[in-house]
Design goal:
two-stranded antiparallel sheet; three-stranded mixed β-sheet; alpha+beta; 36% helix
């Protein structure tokens, strides 16, 4: 996979340019932690420790590799794979491609060969900057920015200011919805011609608005801006993400439906004007 996907051999120079190392320079050995003699409880503690070690790594951009793979050998002939990668070389859609090709290799299938590189894509997108479509999107964004709330982020309460915390760690919060309730959410989403993810985003915005001092704010929303500039771009590994501020109006007295209507309008406005540069302002 490292030979096939050149961005797995990438480093970022101090000039901001990327460099793809030669295949023979990038021979990687997976670190293995043998936990097969541990009890179930002990093995869980050990591989959770491995996760904590890997989830906040900050790698030097000019040093290869910009990823890490470890394996925990567990009781009952199980294996847990730990994978960490710097998202400066790989976005979420690229992660899906990596997982797909990893599954191919795991099952004895050869990884697909690619005739284009991320560099080809970048150069092609740069040419789009010279088109009228890009200029029009750029002008529209310049005007759109003037209409956004004066204070962009939600002003949420906190126990301590971030400046007072020396060791900042992000914690993943998750909640599992049972199938019956999720089916209802999907059915309602279809009724109003939206995706379930937009419905979840609306619920998230409503909760944030309840605790925020300012009721009009923006949420920075990632957009997979993979422009079909070259053939085969759908199989490339790289950072294609753009970000757009989605305006939220969660003022007191607004119903969930009213917040949703305004959110949907904002999404439509942002989505139709995504330029090849994304949101860099």
């Amino acid at each position: 996979m490292i030979d096939t996907h050149e961005m797995l051999r990438a480093v970022i120079l101090k000039s901001g340019e990327q460099k793809i190392l030669k295949k023979e320079e990038c021979r990687y050995k997976i670190k293995i932690n043998d936990l097969r003699g541990y009890s179930e409880e002990e093995s869980v503690k050990e591989y959770e420790k491995t996760r904590r070690e890997m989830d906040h790594l900050i790698r030097p951009l000019e040093q290869w590799p910009m990823f890490e793979v470890r394996m925990s050998l567990l009781p009952e002939n199980r294996i847990r794979i730990h994978f960490s990668i710097d998202l400066i070389i790989c976005d979420v859609s690229s992660m899906r491609i990596l997982q797909r090709d990893w599954a191919f290799a795991y099952n004895g299938r050869d990884c697909r060969k690619y005739d284009i590189s991320f560099r080809d894509y970048v150069l092609m997108v740069q040419k789009l900057r010279e088109t009228s479509i890009y200029d029009e999107a750029d002008k529209n964004w310049d005007e759109r920015i003037k209409t956004l709330p004066e204070i962009l982020p939600p002003m949420l309460p906190y126990v301590r200011a971030a400046s007072e915390i020396s060791d900042i760690r992000f914690v993943r919060r998750s909640f599992r919805i049972d199938c019956e309730r999720w089916d209802k959410i999907k059915a309602i989403s279809v009724k109003y011609s939206i995706s379930p993810s937009v419905a979840v985003m609306c619920a998230f915005s409503t909760v944030i608005g309840r605790y925020s001092k300012n009721k009009d704010f923006c949420i920075n929303t990632p957009i997979i801006n993979r422009v079909a500039a070259v053939d085969g771009v759908e199989d490339l590994i790289g950072e294609f993400s753009s970000f757009a501020p989605v305006e939220i109006n969660a003022g007191t007295g607004r119903t969930f439906a009213e917040v949703y209507d305004r959110l949907l309008l904002s999404l439509l406005e942002e989505g139709k004007e995504v330029s090849p540069r994304g949101m860099l302002t």
